[in-house]
Design goal:
With about 290 residues, this protein is α/β, with parallel strands linked by helices. The chain has one domain: Methenyltetrahydromethanopterin Cyclohydrolase, Chain A, domain 2 (2-Layer Sandwich). It is built from 11 helices and 11 strands. The protein has helices at about 20-30, 55-65, 85-90, 95, 120-130, 145-150, 155-165, 190-205, 215-220, 235-240, 280-285, and strands spanning about 5-10, 35-40, 50-55, 70-75, 75-80, 105-110, 135-140, 175-180, 205-210, 260-265, 270-275. It is globular and about 55 Å long. The chain starts with 5 loop residues before the first strand and ends with a helix.
Length: about 290
Amino acid sequence: MPCGTRVIDCGVKAAGGRSAGLRMAEICLSGLARVSVKALGESVWPGPWIYVFTEEPVAACMASQYAGWQITGEEFFAMGSGPMRAAYGKEKLFDHIGYREQPPVAVGVLETSKLPPDEVCRKIAADCGIAPDKLTLVCARTASAAGHLQIVARSVETALHKMHELGFDLQRVKSGQGFAPLPPTAPDDMTGIGRTNDAVLYGAAVFLWVVGDDDSLAEIGPKIPSSASRDFGEPFAAIFERYNRDFYKIDPLLFSPAAISLFNLDTGRSHSFGGPRPDVLKRSFAG
């Protein structure tokens, strides 16, 4: 860009692909997690699955991957994630988890239908406390192969965010892994939003290794899966339309994986809750 910011197009004007999506997902996670494509059989979804594993779950998922930064400009909107969020540090979430940074450079991922203009790059750099030529932005729209993959790679992140909203101490979580089905690339962003949300809500299985007492795990466990929400059971696109495309009217308890298993490192006990809904996935992915 004229200001010196490097913008990497993985799926806005460029076609991109699954390899670009894998790199985007790992960048979103600050390089603190492994992301790969797996085949898990045909019982839930016969297509590919996205696997995520991290031993730095709070730093990787909450301080970096969570798309908590809404970035706006003249005729521009993006959801920002990646390690630049820790440099920005103005989200309330950071008051709880820490991890704010003052780095010499910043890297971010934008979910956007347009490449960021020069003035937006300058604003992001200023918010991160760096010069514009020290900023790199990796971009893809939802309706792209890379965009789909990097969103579906958020299975562990959605579980952690739900647990945080329920008041669970995330410092008890020591490692995590998750699987979520990768849907066919949608022809438009709205269909893509529906399919990628459904991949997590009705297909994702997350496994977390935690410490502490078992009673608190048994209490919070049933509240974590998406099935705890009153809006559970329909494809996300249908729910979105029912609320006149207003995200804020959707039950916030919906945004979480279909299944969660908690393994207590202190006691050796395990707790599992929720389960997949292949019927909803089939409706969503075929639409």
